[in-house]
């Protein structure tokens, strides 16, 4: 494949690269005054990158024609589906940021630049066809994310979140890199197809260790138990717009990358990794549910909620079938809508002078002062719990269905039973905001951009979301088919 063809396949990444570099130079010369303008430019670039994905998504492109630079980069419909979700989540994180940071006098030009580079890293991750490409994308995303976590330099919690994320993230990257080196040593290749071919047949002990280390490193990136310890502290300490970003875009990228590595690289050794994924899935569901019960901070509760949801997503991965991969992608779409809406609602929890309200007890009876916000948050919590007829139920349904079809009936049954535990803390929040005596705390006004995004996400997770199931199912099936195509 010639250079011009490869460049055509990476148009979304080229747009993000050019935008990031231009904004970086402009921020160095222009200071923080044009920060809102830079945010608008970043949103436009992400939107243009998303538009460039439409032909790939619509036609379900896959196979040799989607390989760029040899086999280093795969611009297939699976990558395009994940990128579309990543770009939408990044746009959401950019839309909600200016109003929140301006109130604190902390809106700086670096914010959209960091979001663009983090998104570029994630875009490269999900299209990786080689472990070297995977690691480059992962580190580009991680380096930007560490700075974003500590973006409020004068806030002790933000600095602490950035430091914890950096130390534990570096450890996870080291584990992943060591696993990659083991696989290279025992297979003689870093190319996904080459590693898969070398792993056919009996799996050596060294290659098995490499597989385990790679899965452990990726489990950290998706905040799956027992590698979840950083999540509550980072989600609570990071600025809320940054937490909104962390809970959505990087989660999609890491899960999509895990799916590609599991199905593509280790596709011939399903029995070797399936038991690991099942263990991580069930542990994440239980720890996410039990850990959230005693939380008093709404951001920490949502952090445990994200761990819980990752467990359900991994049930689709454990199915190790095209239906399981499709279910995983459907769940990711619904999860992004639910998480984005939930954190936007958290952004809008303010007292009369505009200070953030994060304590759940301070949200008591807020339906009296903020009826529309309360009802939106109420339905978002119920959707996260997977209660029908809200759209969150459909995400759990499709992954359980894929597990049953893959003869993992016990796993599906355990997942359904564990989801009942998780419903408790969601219903607890619903009860506090709707039925408790009013605390009279959440009375502040919110920006128009926050309202627009909250209403859009609330509409998606409502029963209206089921109108999306035909097109969503078609796109996810095409993406899963591309992932399972063995060249």
TrEMBL record:
A cellular component annotation (GO) from this entry: plasma membrane
Catalytic activity of the protein: a quinone + NADH + 5 H(+)(in) = a quinol + NAD(+) + 4 H(+)(out)
Record GO biological process: ATP synthesis coupled electron transport
Top EC class, one word: translocase
Transmembrane segments: 6-30, 37-58, 78-99, 111-128, 165-186, 206-230, 275-294, 301-323, 329-349, 372-394, 406-427, 448-468
Keyword Lyase: no
Molecular function, one GO term: NADH dehydrogenase (quinone) (non-electrogenic) activity
A family per Pfam: Proton_antipo_M
Keywords for this protein: Cell membrane, Membrane, NAD, Oxidoreductase, Quinone, Translocase, Transmembrane, Transmembrane helix, Transport, Ubiquinone
Residues of the NADH:quinone oxidoreductase/Mrp antiporter transmembrane domain: 128-422
EC number(s) per entry: 7.1.1.-
Domain of life: Bacteria
Membrane topology of this protein: Multi-pass membrane protein
Localization per record: Cell membrane; Endomembrane system; Membrane
Biological role stated in the UniProt entry: NDH-1 shuttles electrons from NADH, via FMN and iron-sulfur (Fe-S) centers, to quinones in the respiratory chain. The immediate electron acceptor for the enzyme in this species is believed to be ubiquinone. Couples the redox reaction to proton translocation (for every two electrons transferred, four hydrogen ions are translocated across the cytoplasmic membrane), and thus conserves the redox energy in a proton gradient.
Similarity comment text for this entry: Belongs to the complex I subunit 2 family.
Subunit structure: NDH-1 is composed of 14 different subunits. Subunits NuoA, H, J, K, L, M, N constitute the membrane sector of the complex.
Protein name: NADH-quinone oxidoreductase subunit N
């Amino acid at each position: 494949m010639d250079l011009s063809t490869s460049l055509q396949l990476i148009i979304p990444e080229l747009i993000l690269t050019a935008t990031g570099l231009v904004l970086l130079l402009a921020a160095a010369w222009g200071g923080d005054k044009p920060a809102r303008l830079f945010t608008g430019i970043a949103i436009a670039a992400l939107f243009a990158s998303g538009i460039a994905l439409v032909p790939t998504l619509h036609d379900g492109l896959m196979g040799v024609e989607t390989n760029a630079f040899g086999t280093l980069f795969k611009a297939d419909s699976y990558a395009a589906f994940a990128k579309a979700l990543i770009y939408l989540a990044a746009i959401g994180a950019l839309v909600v940021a200016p109003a929140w940071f301006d109130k604190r006098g902390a809106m700086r030009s670096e914010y959209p630049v960091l979001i663009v580079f983090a998104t570029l890293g994630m875009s490269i991750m999900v299209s990786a066809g080689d472990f070297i490409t995977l690691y480059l994308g992962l580190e580009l995303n991680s380096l930007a994310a560490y700075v974003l976590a500590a973006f409020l330099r004068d806030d002790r919690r933000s600095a602490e979140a950035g430091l914890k994320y950096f130390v534990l993230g570096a450890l996870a990257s080291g584990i992943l890199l060591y696993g990659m080196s083991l696989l290279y040593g025992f297979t003689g290749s870093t190319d996904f197809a080459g590693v898969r071919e070398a792993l056919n047949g009996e799996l050596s002990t060294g290659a098995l260790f490499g597989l385990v280390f790679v899965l452990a490193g990726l489990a950290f990136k998706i905040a799956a138990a027992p590698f979840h310890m950083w999540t509550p502290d980072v989600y609570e300490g990071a600025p809320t717009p940054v937490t909104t970003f962390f809970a959505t875009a990087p989660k999609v990228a890491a899960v999509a990358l895990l799916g590609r590595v599991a199905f593509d690289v280790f596709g011939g050794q399903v029995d070797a990794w399936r038991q690991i994924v099942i263990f991580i899935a069930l542990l994440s569901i239980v720890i996410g549910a039990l850990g959230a019960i005693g939380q008093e901070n709404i951001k920490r509760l949502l952090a445990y909620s994200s761990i819980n949801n990752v467990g359900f997503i991994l049930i689709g991965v454990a199915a190790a079938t095209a239906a399981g991969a499709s279910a995983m992608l459907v769940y990711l779409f619904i999860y992004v809508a639910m998480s984005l809406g939930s954190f936007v609602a958290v952004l809008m929890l303010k007292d009369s002078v505009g200070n953030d309200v994060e304590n759940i007890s301070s949200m008591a009876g807020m339906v009296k002062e903020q009826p529309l916000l309360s009802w939106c948050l109420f339905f978002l919590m119920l959707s996260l719990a997977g209660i029908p007829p809200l759209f969150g139920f459909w995400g759990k349904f499709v992954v359980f269905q894929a597990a049953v079809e893959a003869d993992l009936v016990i796993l599906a049954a355990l997942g359904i039973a564990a989801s009942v535990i998780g419903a408790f803390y969601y219903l607890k929040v619903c009860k506090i905001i709707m039925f408790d005596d009013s605390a009279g705390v959440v009375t502040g006004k919110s920006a128009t951009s926050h309202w627009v995004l909250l209403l859009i996400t609330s509409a998606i997770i409502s029963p209206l979301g089921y109108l999306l199931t035909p097109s969503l199912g078609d796109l996810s099936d095409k993406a899963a088919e591309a992932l399972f195509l063995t060249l």
